[in-house]
Amino acid sequence: MSEAMAIAFAKVFSPLGLIYVIGGGVLGMILGAIPGMSGGTASIIILPLVYKMDPGLALALLSAIYIGSTSGGCIGSILLGIPGTGSSIPTAWEGFPMSKRGEAVRALSIAVVCNFIGTLPGLIIAMLVSQPLAAIAVQMGQWEYFSLLLLAVTMVVALAKDNLGKGFVSVALALIISCVGTSPIDGAARFTFGNVYLRGGISMIVILLGINAGRMIIEAYAKNKVIDASVAGKVSRFKFPKEDLARNKLNIVRSFLIGVITGFLPGLGGGVASMVCYAMEKNSSKHPETFGHGEPDGIIANEVTNNAVIGGAFIPLVAMGIPGSGAMIYFITALSIHGIGVGPMLFREHPDVVYLLYISSILAAIAILLAQTLGMPLFPMLLKVPAHYLYPAIIAVAFIGSFLNVGNLSGIVMSLAFCLLGMGMKYFEIPEGPFMMTYILANSMETKLRQGLVNGYNGFWDFLTRPISCAFLVLALISLLYNLFGDKIKAKLSKKSAN
């Protein structure tokens, strides 16, 4: 362990490692601040380039971008009232009114400090919890692992809470597309239609570049989005919000715990955590009427929560190979490019990569805190970046990435096809979150299912007779039923209590 940690420290604090961590953090912060952009955009573009990177340093770069974009989302929310990321929506509700009454520095200072308060302890908890959890997970067989992955997929459906039917359509699409290529056990060709370019399946990078990057650019051009940063005005230097933090000790602890727990649950992520925590803080406040009109307590709750999600999401990723949030898909894809499988064996086979991930993430959190505190007067300038000038460069790099990933023009053709699929999903309001999360899990699910059937003696019955596997299947059924009928049951109970 000490040798692996020494290797990780040496790589992180090498000149190239520092460039990746600090540069990635600042890049993520800038993209997170600009409405319509995100750290995910940079991560998608960088993925095809990780072939030539050290796998640990590739994770360090992706982690820095992820942390930077999560922290940077508060900038556009507070100065423009336009959330830079989905998890920054409650910050916009409270931060923008504060900016309009001349308290932009106070709101930004609160958000910057709370970003760090949520990120650093969350990463430390992830470091402490991941290895013991991986030691338990490595004892599981194919049956338990399949049931756990099935539980994760049923939880992912909750991302489409507004329309579960379309959520199931999204999951079904992912499962069908994941079958393209050759089957994992016997190598039989499926859905290739005689096309040799489909025999290897469809790369996650190609899908990400098509559905995310391509669709985002087309949508932005179609809507002719223009960002008006004139309302941001001037921002002075950082001021430590001592009184606001001292008054919200319980709020900070509660928000942090909600963030870590929500991050641990597959498919939920910062958007869900921020809404849950904001609602809890508003309901428990002695002055709920001030929320929505510039209440610092709401900013504290939201920023601590959506940054604590980062550490929580790392736990299932490292220990079990399950993405705790959508951003974790990029990490799994980067490792798979180098032939490194995530899951309980990651600690045993590549401990240096795991430690490098955590050390670089902690360093990135510190670097972003310094960048935001020292560079606060420059925040309004970030919002004046003409995002539409970036789109041609992004689409060019995306096509090059698709070509490099597949090795021929079929990669570009498939990216264009998935760009059209992404536009269709957007038009019919089919959520892409369940699609992405299911697709990344689908191959492992099928492999474990078929291994369980081959190695067992009683077919599907083995999945029910093994206690842990059965427990996961019961939880999956409960999760599915809750997604289908939970709101109706709550509505009936609320009616009864009202009467």
Gist of the model:
The chain is mostly helical and 499 residues long. It has helices at residues 2-12, 15-33, 39-46, 55-80, 89-100, 104-137, 142-156, 164-178, 204-223, 242-247, 249-264, 269-284, 296-320, 328-337, 346-349, 351-374, 379-382, 387-406, 410-427, 432-455, 461-465, 467-498; strands at residues 181-182, 189-190.
List the helices and strands and how they pair.
Layout: H1 2-12, H2 15-33, H3 39-46, H4 55-80, H5 89-100, H6 104-137, H7 142-156, H8 164-178, E1 181-182, E2 189-190, H9 204-223, H10 242-247, H11 249-264, H12 269-284, H13 296-320, H14 328-337, H15 346-349, H16 351-374, H17 379-382, H18 387-406, H19 410-427, H20 432-455, H21 461-465, H22 467-498
Antiparallel strand pairs: 1-2
Helix pairs in contact: 1-16, 2-3, 2-4, 2-16, 3-4, 3-18, 4-5, 4-6, 4-13, 4-14, 4-16, 5-6, 5-13, 6-11, 6-13, 6-16, 7-20, 7-22, 8-20, 9-18, 9-19, 11-12, 11-13, 12-13, 18-19
Descriptive overview:
- With 499 residues, the chain is mainly alpha-helical.
- The protein has helices at residues 2-12, 15-33, 39-46, 55-80, 89-100, 104-137, 142-156, 164-178, 204-223, 242-247, 249-264, 269-284, 296-320, 328-337, 346-349, 351-374, 379-382, 387-406, 410-427, 432-455, 461-465, 467-498, and strands at 181-182, 189-190.
- The chain has one domain.
- Helix content is 73%, strand content 1%.
- Strands 1-2 form a two-stranded antiparallel sheet.
- β1 and β2 (189-190) form a beta hairpin.
- α9 (204-223) packs antiparallel against α18 (387-406).
- The protein starts with a helix and ends with a helix.
- The model has no long low-confidence stretch (mean pLDDT 79).
